[in-house]
Amino acid sequence: MDKAAATSILLKRLRVSTNIDEEDQRAINALPIALKQVRDEESIVSTGDRPSACCLLVDGFIFRSKVVGGGKRQVIAFHQPGDIPDLQSLYIPVLDHDVTALGDCVLGFISHAPLRALVRHRPNVAEILWRDTLIDAAIFREWICNVGHRSGISRTAHVIFEIYTRLKAVQRTKDKSFQFPATQVLLGEAVGLSAVHVNRVMQELREKGLLRFERGTVTILDEAKLKDVADFDPLYLHLDPAL
């Protein structure tokens, strides 16, 4: 993996939801990126940190979380290759949540200074990154509704179907299967359920012939029915530049 491959992954993901001209692509390709391998559950940035660079997820998965009173953790987002989970650190200097590796992953760190210079000199890039943060906010809104008002089976199916839909958009699924190394405990922290409840939900989804989740691999068995159970409308992902 090299810098060119890293920016290619970023551009591929951005092109799903935005229009990027050749000059802007060249400007993004010119960004200095320092690649780093990170191990499973390794902290990338933590609450209270003042990062001097944004991290581009090049390979693997990342999750964001907050710890509330009593030490309980709420997972607030899962991120896939091409995402910049802490892009807000460019203008919000102190991080208010944790960013952690989910499985082994590869990150590309982009220092704030050249990234700020890029958005100052390339207004289109600034708009692209602004739209990206707005889509991030749309996903947060959907997660609030998901945890607050859907049933246990629906909210679990929804998170899995979201990951599947986003990975499929960048050709990272194969025969309706994808790698996702989350434990049932972590999934529970994302959907507000205990690990025992998540286990029951996963068994029910498998028995209904909707999906199979084994050894870090999710296989969608009936896409249409799973989408229905998940109460899933992809509009909030804005996977088309016109949306």
What key attributes describe this structure?
2 domains, Jelly Rolls, 5-stranded antiparallel β-sheet, alpha+beta, Arc Repressor Mutant, subunit A, transcription regulation, 243 residues, transcription
Tell me about the largest β-sheet: 5 strands, antiparallel
> Which strand-content bin applies to the residues?
15-25%
Rough outline: globular
- CATH architecture call of the largest domain: Sandwich
CATH superfamily of the largest domain: Jelly Rolls
Radius of gyration: 18 Å
Low-confidence segments: none
Number of strands: 8
Oligomer: single chain
CATH class of the largest domain: Mainly Beta
Question: How helical, in percent, are the residues?
Answer: 40-55%
CATH topology of the largest domain: Jelly Rolls
SSE succession: HHEEEEEHHHEHHEEH
Overall structural domain count: 2
**Mean pLDDT score:** 96
Structural class: alpha+beta
